[in-house]
Amino acid sequence: MLSDKNKCFFFRRFFAIITYLYAATFLPKACLAAEPEQRKVFVYEAQDRRDPFLPLVSPDGRVLEPQIVKGSEGRPQIEGIIYEAGGSSYAVVSGEVIKVGDTSGGYQVLEIHPEKVIFLKGSEKLEIELKKED
After folding, report:
1. 3-state SS of the chain: helix, strand, coil percent to 5?
2. Would you state the pLDDT for residue 72?
3. Of residues 25 and 59, which shows the higher confidence score?
4. Looking at the predicted structure, is the pLDDT value of residue 133 above 80?
């Protein structure tokens, strides 16, 4: 008859052999059946907006300036309007929030309307409408 110590040794060896046989029988088939995964490359089209995948804070805690690609003409880019009739209206222009009287890229804000902003640069008036996204 086997002692308790020998029974424990026997069951450990038996379990190890069964586990090895199972792994040798089924795992290689599963590993061979799986094809290597192709990594997809995602390219972000900024379209005059800040890249959301770039960090706003550096690893040491400094706030980084967002890199916004401005339009090729150097004109202000209207990104949003907060309009309040008879009150304080604001516009998001080229990444910064401005109000009437502020300047952005050499253009002074004359008026803010619900759908457009009127700028002044020298004696030239420039009217830029808010683009609707589809």
Report:
1. 20, 25, 50
2. 41
3. 59
4. no
Phi, psi angles (nearest 5°) of residue 20: -65, -45
Query: What backbone phi and psi angles, to 5 degrees, belong to 111?
Result: -145, 150
The domain of 111 spans: 78-129
Percentage of the chain exceeding pLDDT 90: 16
CB burial of 87-100 (b: ≥16 within 10 Å; e: otherwise) equals eebbbbbbbeebee
Q: Which helix (H) or strand (E) holds 5?
A: helix 4-33
Number of domains in the chain: 1
Is pLDDT larger for residue 69 or for residue 76?
A: 76
- 120 assigned to some structural domain: yes
92 falls within a domain: yes
Instruction: Tell me how far apart the alpha carbons of residues 57 and 14 are, in angstroms, rounded to a whole number.
Output: 57
Pull the structure tokens for residue 81. Answer: 């309007």
Residue 91: name the closest of 112, 74, 69 by CA: 112
Distances (CA, A) of 10 to 1, 7, 36, 55, 57: 13, 5, 40, 58, 60
